[in-house]
Amino acid sequence: MATVAIPANISVLLLDIEGTTTPITFVKDILFPYIKEHLEDYLSAHWEEDECKQDVYLLKKQAEEDTKQHRAGPVHVLDQTVHTDEEKAIREVVDNVLWQMASDRKTTALKQLQGHMWRAAYASGKIKGEVYQDVVPAIRRWRRLGLKVYIYSSGSVEAQKLLFRYSVEGDLLNLFDGHFDTNMGLKVESKSYQKIADRLGCAPEDIMFLTDITREARAAEEAGVNVTVVVRPGNMELTEEEKSHYSLITSFSQLEVPGSA
């Protein structure tokens, strides 16, 4: 696969995580199973703590919204404010979280709880964040050449920082100028990319977004953002039309910065 030149006007590289910096298998085979396996124990251990109460409150608000939208699924009251059977209440939260995960929901409430659970797992050494071998050298090179590097992922900002702080290559947080999550909006909506550009104080045209998901690529393009699609083992297969439409790379080392040769 040929190299891709970063347009001269680009000042910001915006990176997806899953399938872009980090193998999809890490998320699917390690992070998500950890939540499913430890969710009930985690809630039981932290149920009376303020952080856990806040997580459950957000899940309750999301459940109320889902009821209004007539979304099918185990939507429960999730109410900690009244005296309830704690075991039953925890079971309802577990059912709701597992349903959201099975539906691949990207709600902020779900991502916040997951982030808090992963924090404990990373800090204890049970989990280490995985990154492709080409990622760290490439980002260091981009930064030396004056480019800003940000993450935009469906996972919460906290979960993103944990992955890079407790990575197999050590603490990588200093590689990034900042992080964005679903508080900016969904990655498949073009207005999210405009919001990020506004937050960064630049035009969408000054940003290049790297992702493996063409629905996200399309949304970014609609906002005026430059896009390169990352092709990694295990990522979703691209159609011939997508292959011809997008700039493609299989490694970050294939991105060339003008004047850096």
Average pLDDT works out at 93
> Which oligomeric form is depicted?
single chain
Task: Give the spatial strand order of the biggest sheet.
Answer: 4-3-2-5-6-7
| Main β-sheet description | 6 strands, parallel
Q: Order of SSEs, N→C?
A: EEHHHHHEHEHEHEHEE
Cα end-to-end separation: 19 Å
Number-wise, the strands total 8
Query: What is the beta-strand fraction?
Result: 5-15%
Name the overall outline.
globular
Keywords:
261 residues; alpha/beta; six-stranded parallel beta sheet; two-stranded parallel ribbon; 9 helices; 11% strand
Structural description of this entry:
The protein is of the alpha/beta class. α8 links the parallel β5 and β6. α2 runs antiparallel to α4. It is built from 9 helices and 8 strands.
Layout of helices and strands, plus pairs?
Elements: E1 4-5, E2 12-15, H1 24-46, H2 50-68, H3 86-102, H4 108-123, H5 135-144, E3 148-152, H6 157-165, E4 178-180, H7 190-200, E5 207-211, H8 214-222, E6 226-230, H9 240-245, E7 247-249, E8 255-256
Parallel strand pairs: 1-8, 2-3, 2-5, 3-4, 5-6, 6-7
Helix pairs in contact: 1-3, 2-4, 4-6, 7-8
